[in-house]
Amino acid sequence: MKKIYLILTPLFLTTLTYAQDEQPINDDTTKIKMGNMTIIINDDDTEEGDFDFDMDDTTEVEEKSIGTELDMQLGMNGWLNSSNSTVFSDDYLDMSLQLNRSRSFGMHMMMSGLDIFKGHVFLSPGIGFTWNSYHFENKYVSLTTGNDTTMFLADSAIQFDKYKLRATYAELPITLGFRIGNLDKTFLTVQAGVIGGINIGSIVKQRYFVNSTKYKEKIKDDFNVNPFKLDGIVKLKFKESIGVFARYSFTTMFEQGKTQTVYPFAIGITIGGV
Predict the structure, then answer these.
(1) Is 2 a residue whose pLDDT tops 50?
(2) What DSSP assignment string belongs to 8-44?
(3) Same domain, yes or no, for 37 and 171?
(4) In what residue span(s) does the Outer membrane protein beta-barrel domain sit (predicted)?
(5) Are residues 260 and 170 in the same domain?
(6) Per residue in 198-231, pLDDT tens?
(7) Confidence band, pLDDT 50/70/90 cuts, at residue 26
(8) Residue 61 within a domain
(9) 272, CA 20 to 30 Å: which among 3, 48, 53, 202?
(10) pLDDT at 203
(11) Close Cβ partners of 96 (under 8 Å, ≥ 6 residues apart)
(12) Same domain, yes or no, for 9 and 135?
């Protein structure tokens, strides 16, 4: 048995010496040859194929932030008769409006970030207010209300320097939007939706002169204005900054049966939003 050890010991030492004289595969690799067998020791724990028990398996996820944007609408408003015309018959001629002085102003906080398809299709609900003012074409016309009627009467004794009906609404809009074009460069945004509203106040502001004396009055009343309304809206914007809008009400301006049936509308510019 001792003879076998004496023979194997020089052979083993010779093999180790030969292995150390071999050029390593790289700076962190040791190669040992024992007969027909080669042993490679790799000290580089960054080489591909090594096990790393501290592997950080993270997946990069794009975060879509949800926020709000202020959308303002400024334009002209009026109302249409049942024939979708601004021209009224002789019986209701006093309902004709001076459109270039009738104004609509709306402010809505619209939710952004609700993408449906790759940023090109999105949903945007919101909340806000709209103020609609109506100036009558005939400067002698004023509003008179009763239990069952709203009348537009002309009195030649008083010529109004200013007379307007203003209705204020709290609103909940929701629109479906489409971005058309390259989102990193130039694109158009088209939105269509509905706006539900509740009338929270109606007022008449009038100003007139009698014997060179100026009188200013405010009359608060419901004027039989419909307490609820539902509008359709369409907006066309360059990117998401400025554009045009159009609104049309599916509900009547005044309560049914109280006066001539008219449907409010508004057109103008929109600024901001999504």
Answers:
(1) no
(2) HHHHHHHHHHHHHHSPPSSTTEEEEEETTEEEEEE--
(3) no
(4) 117-250
(5) yes
(6) 999 999 999 988 887 888 999 999 999 999 999 9
(7) low
(8) no
(9) 202
(10) 95
(11) 86, 87, 88, 136, 137, 138
(12) no
Give the up-direction half-sphere exposure of residue 32: CA atoms within 13 A in the CB hemisphere: 10
Q: Does pTM surpass 0.90?
A: no
- The tally of domains found in the chain comes to 2
Instruction: Determine the Cα–Cα distance for residues 118 and 111; give it in Å rounded to an integer.
Output: 17
Q: DSSP E strands: which ranges in 82-159?
A: 103-112, 115-117, 121-135, 141-145, 150-154
Return the CATH number at 158: 2.40.160.20
Query: Given a cut of 80, is residue 8 above it in pLDDT?
Result: no
12/73 same-domain check: no
pLDDT at 39: 57
Residue 182 lies in a domain: yes
Q: Please compute the mean of the pLDDT values over residues 237-241 and round it to a whole number.
A: 81
Strand, coil or helix: 91? helix
Q: Determine how many CB atoms are found less than 10 A away from the CB of residue 35.
A: 7
Q: How far apart are CA 123 and CA 29, in angstroms?
A: 59
Residue 248's H or E segment, with its range, is: strand 242-249
| Position 170 pLDDT exceeds 90 | yes
Range of the domain at 157: 67-272
